[in-house]
Design brief:
Layout (H helix, E strand, L loop, with lengths): L20 H21 L4 H8 L3 H17 L1 H11 L1 H19 L5 H30 L4 H9 L1 H32 L2 H7 L31 H17 L1 H12 L4 H26 L8 H19 L5 H64 L2 H27 L3 H10 L10 H10 L16
Helix pairs in contact: 1-3, 1-6, 1-7, 1-8, 1-9, 3-6, 3-14, 4-5, 4-6, 4-14, 5-6, 5-8, 5-9, 6-14, 7-12, 7-14, 8-12, 10-14, 10-15, 11-12, 11-14, 11-15, 12-14, 13-14, 13-15, 14-15
GO molecular function: lactate:proton symporter activity
InterPro entries: MCT, MFS, MFS_dom, MFS_trans_sf, Proton-linked_MCT
GO cellular component, one term: basolateral plasma membrane
């Protein structure tokens, strides 16, 4: 599976950490908002879909699951497309597909047709936008990358705050068909974001020594040799089993308690509003010099906090309790959203990130596909929402333990071993080192193509 990367970015260029990168950050903000908010926002249409098609909770939950599964499961396909055609063309095609899927969904006459249009076509379009936008963000930011990731991830709650009440408003005035049609038009904004993804320019031929770009594979499977990557992928796959379940069911939970539809949809707005501030804050804290080397532990804590919130939120029995749950869930969910791709970038670096994120998303796709429907099956069998929240919380807590223990026992070097390794690589005392060679090494290695040097703690 060979071939040169078209939009890989020059190997000798340093991440600008600003400039046009802010435009790229804005585009990533919008794309992330659509990608993650859409599967949750369509849940406000579930009650109407259940009445029209005569289906249950698990059947409607498949819509969000297929959307998320396409977003995750097509990761390798997106990696190959980006490495073959570049980020901008792939995102343009994705924006058109996402819009086409929702427009076609407004004419559907069965739930199966909705699975194909809203789930498969729109999901594929969002995937072709989401992954390339993260790749471009990784190329444009290095030192400010944690903050940039936090700001880009804030697009999800911002759009959730807007799309959830907007979806309810559209349903009240135009029905679910008119709502889907208008949402399809809004997704064309992804094409505008694609136009912002300008590739980094290579240095001019006369400005320095010419570096020949090595041939690269369209999908680099060597990342599986990295133990840190494997542990991260396993933990993330377990996490997404339960991560997206509460936002999908919390609106229906409130409606079953007798809460008016508009007030129930407001729960997602509360969750999203808290999430807006949680993500940039988590990104800022992670970017601190003393905190960044231990970002994996902060990520593990975020996962544990999210799972614990699900477990305690299962005791909510009225609208006030659900509001409190959404507040704490928004904080923990925002922390997870801001840190998940920052930690992955720290594991594999810039050069392998496009392949690594595709493979991680593929591994998570199966978990995403069975997560909400399994919660729906449990709900249909028991008619008790508390069990759904307990199951989701237990899965997320388990993932945090996998990441924490895997990093602590399998990755982190012991002080004695690190000292011995440093001693083995220490040059003999009688060897003189040319200062020009030292200067060349320091300039060439630490920030090659915007890639930072990682400590053992940031290896997972």
């Amino acid at each position: 599976m060979g071939g040169a990367v078209v939009d890989e970015g020059p190997t000798g260029i340093k991440a600008p950490d600003g400039g046009w990168g802010w435009a790229v950050l804005f585009g990533c903000f919008v794309v992330t908002g659509f990608s993650y908010a859409f599967p949750k926002a369509v849940s406000v249409f579930f009650k109407e879909l259940m009445r029209e098609f005569g289906i249950g909770y698990s059947d409607t939950a498949w819509i969000s699951s297929i959307l998320l599964a396409m977003l995750y499961g097509t990761g390798p396909l997106c990696s190959v497309c980006v490495n073959r055609f570049g980020c901008r063309p792939v995102m343009l095609a994705g924006g058109l597909l996402a819009s086409l899927g929702m427009v076609a969904a407004s004419f559907c006459r069965s739930i199966i047709q909705l699975y194909l249009t809203t789930g498969v076509i729109t999901g594929l379009g969002l995937a072709l936008n989401f992954q390339p936008s993260l790749i471009m963000l990784n190329r444009y930011f290095n030192k400010r990358r944690p903050v940039a990731n936090g700001l880009a991830a804030a697009g999800s709650p911002v759009f959730l705050c807007a799309l959830s009440p907007l979806g309810q408003l559209l349903q009240d005035h135009y029905g679910w068909r008119g709502g889907f049609l208008i949402l399809g038009g809004l997704l064309l904004n992804c094409c505008v974001c694609a136009a912002l993804m300008r590739p980094l320019e290579a240095p001019r031929p006369g400005s320095g020594p010419e570096t020949q770009r090595p041939a690269r594979r369209l999908l680099d499977l060597s990342v599986f040799r990295d133990r840190g990557f494997v542990i991260y992928a396993v933990a993330a796959s377990i996490m997404v089993l339960g991560l997206f379940v509460p936002p999908v069911f919390v609106v229906s939970y409130a409606k079953d308690l007798g809460v008016p539809d508009t007030q129930a949809a407001f729960l997602l707005t509360v969750l999203g509003f808290i999430d807006i501030f949680a993500r940039p804050t988590a990104g800022f804290i992670t970017g601190l010099k003393k905190v960044r080397p231990y970002s994996v532990y902060l990520f593990s804590f975020s996962m544990f906090f999210n799972g614990f919130t699900d477990l305690t939120g299962s005791t909510a029995s009225d609208y006030g309790g659900l509001v409190v749950f959404c507040i704490f869930f928004g904080i923990s969910y925002g922390m997870v959203g801001a840190l998940q791709f920052e930690v992955l970038m720290a594991i594999v670096g810039t050069q392998k990130f496009s392949s690594a994120i595709g493979l991680v998303l593929l591994l998570e796709a199966i978990a995403v596909l069975i997560g909400p429907p399994s919660g729906g099956k449990l709900l249909d069998a028991t008619h008790v929402y508390q069990y759904v929240f307990v199951l989701a919380g237990a899965e997320v807590v388990a993932s945090s333990l996998v990441l924490l223990l895997g990093n602590f026992f399998c990755i982190r070097k012991r002080p004695e071993a690190a000292a011995e390794e440093e001693e083995r690589h220490k040059p003999p005392a009688d060897v003189r080192v040319d200062s020009r060679e030292v200067e060349h090494f320091l300039k060439a290695e630490p920030e090659k193509n915007g890639e930072v040097v990682h400590t053992p703690e940031t290896s997972v």
